[in-house]
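Q: Predict the bound structure with flavin mononucleotide.
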Amino acid sequence: MTVLVTCVDKRGKPNIITLAWTMPTSFKPPLVAISVGHKRFSHQLIGETKEWVINVPPWKLLKKVELCGIRSGRVIDKFSLAGLTALPSERVRPPRIKECIAHLECRLQNEIRAGDHTIFVGEVVAASVDEDAFDFERNIMDLESFAPVLHLGESFYSTSKKVVSTK
Ligand SMILES: Cc1cc2nc3c(=O)[nH]c(=O)nc-3n(C[C@H](O)[C@H](O)[C@H](O)COP(=O)(O)O)c2cc1C
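A: Predicted complex:
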């Protein structure tokens, strides 16, 4: 699933990077890893300030997701470029993105150099979700009201409305 990760520089100025390479890695403590290329501006910011937020975008944000994945925060303010709204986070300095349906606030727990990317492992210190987009009975995203952005590669994307239970 494709996400928008927010991070900040030392003065608190926020940036957004689109990432498809993410994965949960632990329940206790709750850890999620992101893989960020060494040349990305966000790599520098996360290395310096050691906090970020994983924001989950709905399908209707596809164009903005792509924009944040082709332009660099070194030269442009992506919040204004993409027309996204910064919402203060509960526990970390990087803001959440209001238009996204779920937010995982992360603090650096470990970092692993992996070829030309770094795997930043973050401890989730706060989490929030748009209640309409979550099925609290089954404890899964509610695909009736939320369509994820799935990156297939290059400029190809997909989404899914299909839920299957094996029980
Ligand atoms: C759909 C999509 C997925 C991407 N996934 C990743 C990723 O997992 N890791 C990464 O380092 N860059 C990824 N990128 C590229 C960065 O988002 C892109 O280089 C961005 O412009 C970097 O912004 P920054 O310089 O402001 O940090 C992806 C781009 C797109 C469009």
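A: The chain has one domain: 3-158.
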